[in-house]
Specification:
about 50% helix; alpha+beta
Length: about 90
């Protein structure tokens, strides 16, 4: 049985808004390009472990609505929870 894992994907066009709304922007990559390289490395590592990676393109407005609805800050933990709840 192949297990799937949802992995957050941020569009280049949304990067600045994403960083501006994150609770701890200093913990994020400085640029989208740096983040994208880390994303590819993470994705590859998961696939090497025989996991099916589902790229979840993050809609920043929907993420912020999720945070507001659940009274959560836009942290890495919250984003992981948001991504894990996405159904395809």
């Amino acid at each position: 049985m192949i297990h799937s894992v949802n992995l957050a994907f941020y569009r280049r066009i949304d990067w600045e808004k994403f960083v501006a709304t994150a609770d701890a922007p200093e913990k994020l990559h400085d640029t989208w390009d740096e983040w994208f390289l880390a994303f590819l490395k993470t994705k590859s590592g998961l696939e090497e472990r025989h996991l099916n990676v589902v790229e979840v393109t993050i809609n920043i407005e929907q993420l912020l609505a999720f945070c507001k609805k659940n009274n959560l800050k836009n942290t890495s933990e919250t984003r992981s929870k948001y991504v894990s709840l996405q159904q395809f």
